[in-house]
């Protein structure tokens, strides 16, 4: 079977849907889990803070590929049936949660102490203080690095091809094996990733410049 | 369902694991050195006053920073041979890692150069130093001192990302782990051990670089 340039492009674009979906799911899932990690990380009690610190350190100090392998081979050992898609989602979600928690921690620590005192002085208890005063400000301050991390996450999804998830990178390997046109295929793949990431990078820079002025 | 972890295979696996770890360290050291030099050249070129150099460096940085490392690696290893450039897997890995690290490094070093106040350069010129010497002896050391922690982090990240070079059959730590788990059928334990080794290497690399940087750039890493 002969592949024209358009066949290659069309198949790559079809696979790109999975890259986009995985990025979004991991970003949202990572945000939810990361919120829990953040709360533990900024807690006053050491028995909450230390494990959260360790969690973040573990994910930032080991290769993503190893994390994915551990999820892929580890979950079946505790009796959870798993295929590449769920392993990719679980692995990337956990990894994203660590990175997002660390980004937000920077935001929480940048909030002036007066804000905490003010929240206490109007009688807010911990949950209300976090929800109404601290977290909204922390999220606003860290909008630029959050978008920057989303770019990183889109690029991270390429590694899930190695555990067999059929996203853009894995599709490109298959198409390359069928067409023997690696220059065209990987060139196009690079272009597709660039088209997804570059606007986000520009947006992150825009947010950063606006925050500074 | 119960599953007992078994590390009995480990005693026979020490040699390949050590070999793989050394290969990963080798890749990291070589690309760390090459990447730092290229980053300095890139950042200096972008600030040379030439518009075409600046836009060339900017384009390179954006292209690399907005595409995955795995794609860059495959493009170099599988794509370039069709232009007649066939590279050995290890050379391709070093090339891809250096190109990737330099893109981030150029931004980091550039930020450091911008942080050195103009007065420093002008003072050097007033002393009659040639522009090259002003850059090498006055501006660059101060810039490096500021950005050394960021550069260290980037090199650690590169080491962690280098795990994917096993995909083009470079015999790094991940490659040896793949081979081991295929032989022992103890995939989880194998990757657990290797992950711990990566963690240890990233902690040690960071510590060594901060300590080495402190000595090299007298005045300490800020």
Number of domains of chain A: 1
Q: How many β-strands of chain A, per DSSP?
A: 0
Task: Specify the CATH homologous superfamily of chain B.
Answer: MetI-like
Strand content of chain B: under 5%
> Structural class per helix/strand content of chain B?
mainly alpha
Rounded radius of gyration of chain B (Å): 21 Å
CATH topology category name of chain B = MetI-like fold
What letter string, H or E per element, gives the SSE order of chain B?
HHHHHHHH
* SSE pattern of chain A: HHHHHHHHH
Would you tell me which CATH topology of chain A applies?
Answer: MetI-like fold
Structural class of chain A, by secondary structure, is mainly alpha
Major sheet of chain A: size, sense and barrel closure? none
Main interface by residue count:
A-B, 40 and 39 residues
How many E strands of chain B? 0
What's the helical proportion of residues of chain A?
Answer: over 70%
**Global shape of chain B:** elongated
Outline the structure in words.
The complex is a heterodimer of chains A (about 210) and B (about 220). Chain A is mainly alpha-helical. Chain A has helices spanning about 5-40, 45-60, 65-75, 85-110, 115-120, 125-140, 145-155, 170-180, 180-210. In chain A, helix 2 (about 45-60) crosses helix 4 (about 85-110) and helix 5 runs antiparallel to helix 6. Chain A is globular and about 75 Å long. Chain A starts with a helix and ends with a helix. By secondary structure, chain B is mostly helical. The N and C termini of chain B lie far apart (about 55 Å). The relative contact order of chain B is 0.15. The interface of A and B includes residues 182, 194 and 201 of A.
